[in-house]
Amino acid sequence: GQQVMQIPQYQHVQEGEDFTTYCNSSTTLSNIQWYKQRPGGHPVFLIQLVKSGEVKKQKRLTFQFGEAKKNSSLHITATQTTDVGTYFCAGRPQTSGGYNKLIFGAGTRLAVHP
Amino acid sequence: DAGVTQSPTHLIKTRGQHVTLRCSPISGHKSVSWYQQVLGQGPQFIFQYYEKEERGRGNFPDRFSARQFPNYSSELNVNALLLGDSALYLCASSTTGQSVETQYFGPGTRLLVL
User: Fold this and answer.
1) Which site in A16, A37, A51, A96 is 20 to 30 Å from B98, CA atoms measured?
2) What whole-number distance in Å separates Cα of residue A110 and Cα of residue B90?
């Protein structure tokens, strides 16, 4: 079946270090979304990427969508303790029939040590 | 504006029982999707509804059913509960449920099956 793999599973960084999480889909995606979930919370939408090779920035966060629309990455520059949480990518397969089915990766849990 | 709301916030059931979870979408949103998030994993797509009709279904058994009401709120029903049904159940709403739209998640219902 359709899968979205996400690595690493966990990442521990010192405050100020950079962080990157990667997603790879088994099928071509029409678009990909990124979410952040704090412990005990629910996924909060960060961004959506639609175009092949697209790069978007939000302050210290940089999101990329691969040329083949099968992979994506999230890079955080100079992490802060407020960045703690689990980051999920969620892809929407091109074959999803147009409806809003998201396939989530397993997430990368980020811990930031002050 | 109010976001997606879900009730109850927490629920404890025993095996074999039935449960009904409720979701109210963001005002103006006509599509609701349901996801199951088991601890330590990403959300898994269960259903999508738009204008009271099911538009998509994930790989869940027939014990899982849902419906959408004229006011666009939705219910998720799970029969014959199993221990493995313990999870965070998330509802997400979007305007029309088309694949290019952003979904906004509610806080979820935490279900524990004993």
Assistant:
1) A37
2) 22
Rounded distance, CA A9 to CA A88, Å?
A: 10
What confidence tens digit (pLDDT) does each residue in B2-12 have?
Answer: 799 999 999 99
Residue B98, classed as helix, strand or coil, is: strand
* Residues in chain B closer than 8 A to A35 (CB atoms): 105
Q: How many helices (H) and strands (E) does chain A have?
A: 0, 11
Q: Is A114 on the interface with B (CB under 8 A)?
A: no
> How far B40 CA lies from chain A's nearest CA (Å)?
8
CA distance B21 to B88: 11
Q: Spell out the domain ranges in chain B.
A: 5-113
Encoded amino acid at B24, one letter: S
What's the pLDDT at A87? 98
Q: Amino acid letter at B61?
A: P
- Rounded distance between C-alpha atoms, residue A15 and residue B44, angstroms: 32
CATH superfamily, region B5-113: Immunoglobulins (2.60.40.10)
The minimal CB distance from A42 to the residues B42, B48, B108 is found for: B108
User: Mind listing the pLDDT tens digit for each residue in B67-101?
Assistant: 999 999 999 999 999 999 999 999 999 987 776 77
Sign of CA dihedral B20, B26, B27, B29: negative
- DSSP letter for each residue of A4-48: EEEE-SEEEEETT--EEEEEEESS-EEEEEEEEE-TTS--EEEEE
With tokens 């074959």, the residue in question is A95
So what's the pLDDT on residue A112? Answer: 97
